[in-house]
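Fig. S4 source data, part A: sequence.
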Amino acid sequence: MPRQIDVDMLFETIVAVFAERGYQACTTQEIARRSGVNEATLYRRFGDKAALVNQALTRALTGSPFASLKITNDLVADLTLLVGAYADSVEQHGGAVLTLLTDVPRHPELREAMDVLTPNMRNAAQVIAAHQNQGHLSAGDPLRMVTTLLAPLMAAGLWHRAGYPALGSGEDPAHVVASFLEGHRLS
């Protein structure tokens, strides 16, 4: 009888290899070696590398803290939770989000995973829009404002991925929010 595959562990391995190496160097051979699953089994069960990576990223992004943001009347708390959820998601998934963002232009076969990330960003933009509607934040494209809010963390992640962790040390969510509010808070 064939042994059962621990899909959760397999997908965690795929996300880790993808985050470390990028799509091009993320091989099914490396995934098989690290997960202890036969490479032929990977192809038979999941299809090609793109399908395998997309399924793993989809599961990771769907279940990430960044996918389940809530809106309250507390601007600072909501933005701090948003930044923290993004940081936690990147921490949990080893920078897979940053890798996906940098790899998808060269590898359109990753669009399926991007289709999961996009609603996460739109949900974050709804937090911004809600506080704009409450008169707490200045007007502007909410999606662009989310990007501005998260930019310090994204930049830190890119530096870290490039091998310069001292330049990519990130920032405390409360500090990121305070800096953002200096230019965008209305009341």
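Fig. S4 source data, part B ends here. The chain has nine helices and no strands.
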